[in-house]
Write a structure and sequence with these properties.
By secondary structure, this protein is of the alpha/beta class. Helix content is about 35%, strand content about 15%. A six-stranded parallel β-sheet has the order 5-4-1-6-7-8, sandwiched between helices. A two-stranded antiparallel ribbon has the order 2-3. Helix 1 packs parallel to helix 6.
Amino acid sequence: MIKLPDTIKWVITDFDGIMTDNCAYIDADGRISRRVNFKDVMGMSILKKNGYHIAVISGETNSAIELLSKKFDIQEIHQGIRKKIDVLKSIIDKYSLTQDEYVYIGDDINDVDSLNYAKYKITVPGAVEKVKAVEGIQVTNAKSGEGAFREVADALVK
């Protein structure tokens, strides 16, 4: 069971491997698509309707992020980011966030610095071992792309 304090205002998350099943589907024309679970989409809706802010920091660039950012008016979308910690710190500075006001969700090695920096940190069961070894990290019961993001939303909106 994910436990987060009432002080959280922002959910800052990776996308692939959290909101998706961590797979890229490539068609015969070379187009890449991803599978997104509607439980996780509803998690975004629940957070927004309850006054939470969402930021996405993704190592990849994809149209699913753009679509969801427009649908839910997500003000912080960062794609194609290799050094996520710099973007995380810029969001924290821009909105004058304290360590008690955000949670970071990530699953792979490019999230480790951000997870180590955050006071509240969450990953998924299929995360790489280096992420699971981050001190103080919580692991969702749901797998990536199968309601993990929704689990975080439900932990915040009781």
